[in-house]
Structure formats: C-alpha cells, structure tokens
Design brief:
Elements: H1 5-18, H2 21-39, H3 44-51, E1 54-55, E2 64-65, H4 66-91, H5 98-123, H6 141-151, H7 157-181, H8 188-206, H9 208-212, H10 216-237, H11 242-251, H12 258-262, H13 269-294, H14 300-308, H15 311-338, H16 349-358, H17 364-373, H18 379-426, H19 430-442, H20 444-454
Antiparallel strand pairs: 1-2
Helix pairs in contact: 1-13, 2-6, 2-13, 4-7, 4-11, 4-13, 5-7, 5-15, 6-7, 6-18, 8-10, 8-11, 10-11, 13-17, 15-16, 15-18, 16-18, 17-18
Length: 458
C-alpha cells in the first residue's frame, strides 16, 4: 500500500525539523546524556553489551562493533556534508574572497594551535597522554551553531558568518590531523582503489544531471553504492574512513554563479545531496555516534573525583574553555594590528570573545579524536570523554551568557531605531507627504538611472 497523504505531510514536517540547527544540537546533547546516565546506572552492562556487539563480514575486515560502525561508518555521512560545505565555501562562499576569509582562517589556525599548546603544557609531561594533543583542537559545527541560533536572534550577521567559516576551516584542519597524526600504517593497494573509486564518483557526479536527470532515486541507486565501495577501500587502507566522506563531498559540483543557477530548472547536486542527507546526519548518524561514544562509566563519587583531578581532564577542559577563545581572539587581534584587515564595523571585540567561547564546544570531532588517540580500555580514554562533555557544557554556558547579553544590547538598538522611524514617519502632515510624493515622481527617471549604475552585476 502507498503511504497516505497525511503520513507524507508528517514525514516532510519531521525532515524539515531535522534540518534545523537547534534540533540537531538538542538531539546530540540528549543522546550523549542518555548514554552517560545509562553507562553509570545498574543496567550499565546492557549498554556496554550493545555498544560492543559485533556486526559485519569478517573476510572484508568489516566485522566491527556497533560503536565502531557509528564512529567509522555513520559519522562518514557527517563528514560528507562537511566536505560539501567546504567545497561550497571555497567555490561560492566566503572562503573564495581573500579579504573575507583571511580573518576566520587565521583565527581557526590560532584556535587549533593554542589549545594544543595548552594541553601539552599541562599533560605533556606524561608520555602516555601526549598522543591526545589534538583532542581539544576541534569545534563542533552543529552544537555551536545550534547554541548561536538559540541566543543570537539579533546579533550581527557577520558574526554568524565568522563562526561558520571558522568552524568549517577548523574541521578541515581536524580532518588533516586525523589523516596524518592518527594513521598508524597505510596499505597502498586499498588506498589506490579508494582514490580511484572516489575519482569515478566525482566523474559521475559532474555528469549526473546530464545523464541521470533529476530523479531523486538516482542519487541513492547510483552514487550511494559507489560511495560505500570507496568507504570500504579507505577503511581497508588504514586511513580513517571518514576521510573518504570528505573527499567524496569535495568531488560534488557546486553552482558558483547566479547565471549557473538561473540556467537550471532546480537546485544543483550539492544542494540536493545536502537536502536529502542532512536529516539523516542530524537525526540519526551524529546522535547515534554521540550515544555510543559518550557512555563512560565514571564509578561513583570517587570516580568523579579521580576523573576531574586527572591532568588529562584538566588539560582538555582548560584547552577548550580557555585555549580556544584565547587563540581565536588573540590571533584576530594580532592580524588587525599588523595588517590593514579590520573587524566588520557592526562587530565588537566582546562579540568575538563570545564566538571564541562558542568554538570551545568540541563535541563530535573531539570524541572521534579520543577514539583514535586512546584505546577503549585505557583510563585516559574515559577521562578524555568526560572532559570533552564537561568543557563543551561550560563553553556553551559561558558563550550563552556573553552572547545573550550582546543579543539584548543589539535588540535594544533595533528597538530604539524602529521607534525613531515611527516618529519620523508620523511627523509630516498630509500636505508635506503629498509634496514629497510629487518630488519623488518628478525625479523618478533620475533615481532609476542611479539604481542601474549602483546595482552590482555579476
């Protein structure tokens, strides 16, 4: 039987909700909290049994636990969307303009280097902990943007663009770190096969509309199987398979000019893939990864005390809560002092401090780096995850306090401006308004010429 119209409408409504940043961030936090409570409850054995349940096909080296399928498999969907977003930013977004991109790019670099240095300064004396230096370097796009969407209704739009670009570049750096620093051995043949498959995927994606049209099922029947094969080869090569997701996203064509969009009857392939996969990522893949990654058994009051006195925990919390905003703001400040680059006139330094604090939310990618840096049986593995959760919550609260106050400040400015506009519009009488109307009609042609001259053209 075919689904009823009512069920289709309800499904569309749910999918639309899952594309919202606030909903995705809420699901992420809820699943992480559920895992943490379950792992520290009397039923903790059932949680670990579920997480460690092995599923797959051993001859293809795909006999993985459910937790590994979530981090290596499902999270690839998230990284594929990151690849799409990076491609759009480089081709059609802010990263294609040097003047706009240089500030968040260098700020992201400072926001990666400073937390790593803070971590090494606190925990680097222990050789067993040094491998976790990259844990506090990442920013969780979904979580950070969700918090900004909740509290930043009146903040300047350049501030949101700065955060998005910062987080995108941050993720790009984190992807490079994962590929280089957390790959033990590389098997050349599977890697070559993975790259060849990714190349074939990109070739088909470039010609997708010409040969396969706009049918929605074509994406799932053609591109998805090829992407799965590329993922399997990348997994066998020894490089973390989420890298395959990023590379696949980079191969998808992006419409980079208005004329390109006008010449087509619908959205481009990049937009279609993002539209179709975004609910799957925010509603299923990332929350499930958080569920299987955040379930750490701390072990009562003594366990909590041991966790938060561990140099590793202190290092991760300090690096995310203090190192991230310090690196971002300090790098931006130095840039404005030694070059002609300046902040957008609508943005104040206190706004930038709030965004830097928001970047201290290092949830998803930080948990992934923890999985790669420490073995699940190590104490450091569990303590690092607790530290990430604690630091992300603290950063979110501090950012909400700073940016919430700034949001109220900008709202008051808007209210004063709207009151002045109302007073000005109610000032002239009917005769004065009629006279001004006649003047506007008399100068109509001149205004039209000026509009044509001033209007930017592509």
């Amino acid at each position: 039987m075919f689904p009823s119209p009512a069920s289709l409408v309800e499904t569309s409504r749910i999918l639309a909700l899952l594309r919202q940043e606030t909903v995705g961030g809420g699901l992420l936090v809820a699943m992480a909290a559920l895992a943490l409570v379950w792992a520290n409850s009397p039923a903790a054995g059932s949680y670990t049994g579920l997480r460690d349940l092995r599923v797959g096909y051993p001859p293809w080296q795909l006999d993985l636990t459910l937790g590994a399928w979530a981090s290596d498999g499902l999270l690839t969907i998230f990284f594929f969307l990151v690849g799409l977003e990076l491609k759009r930013e480089f081709v059609a977004g802010d990263l294609r303009r040097f003047g706009t991109a240089i500030k968040p790019i260098l700020a992201a670099a400072g926001g990666v280097a400073t937390p790593a240095l803070v971590y090494l300064a606190i925990a680097g004396r222990d050789p067993g902990l040094r491998h976790g230096w990259a844990i506090p370097t990442a920013t969780d796009i979904a979580f950070a943007v969700a918090v900004l969407a909740l509290i930043g209704s009146h903040l300047p739009s350049p501030l949101r663009i700065f955060l998005l670009t910062l987080a995108v570049v941050d993720d790009l750096i984190a992807i490079g770190i994962i590929a280089v620093a957390y790959t033990d051995a590389i098997h050349p043949l599977p890697l070559l096969l993975a790259l060849a498959t990714i190349g074939a995927y990109g070739l088909i994606a470039q010609m997708f509309r010409r040969f396969l049209g706009d049918h929605p099922a074509a994406v799932w029947l053609v591109l998805l199987p090829i992407g799965a094969v590329a993922w399997a080869f990348m997994h066998a090569s020894g490089i973390h398979p989420t890298i395959a997701g990023v590379l696949l996203g980079f191969t998808v064509p992006v419409l980079h000019h208005r004329r390109d969009r006008d010449s087509l009857t619908g959205p481009g392939l990049s937009e279609r893939l993002d539209h179709q996969l975004r609910p799957l990522s925010t509603g299923f893949a990332v929350p499930l990864f958080a569920f299987f990654s955040a379930g750490v058994a701390v072990g009562g009051p003594d366990g909590w005390r041991a966790t938060f006195t561990d140099p590793l925990t202190i290092a991760v919390v300090a690096a995310l809560v203090l190192g991230k905003p310090t690196g971002i703001v300090l790098t931006t400040w130095v840039l404005t002092r030694v070059t002609r680059v300046e902040l957008d006139p609508s943005v104040q330094w206190v706004d930038l401090i709030g965004v830097g604090q928001l970047a201290g939310i290092g949830f998803t990618v930080s948990l992934l780096v923890t999985e790669l840096a420490f073995d699940p049986g190590q104490t450091a593995h569990d303590h690092a995850k607790v530290a990430i959760l604690a630091a992300s919550i603290v950063s979110a609260v501090l950012a909400a306090v700073i940016l919430g106050d700034r949001n109220r400040h900008y709202r008051r400015i808007e209210d004063v401006g709207s009151d002045r506009d109302e007073d000005a519009s109610s000032g002239p009488g009917e005769e004065a308004r009629a006279g001004s109307d006649e003047q506007r009609q008399g100068h109509g042609e001149d205004q039209g010429v000026l509009a044509d001259v001033d209007e930017p053209r592509e």
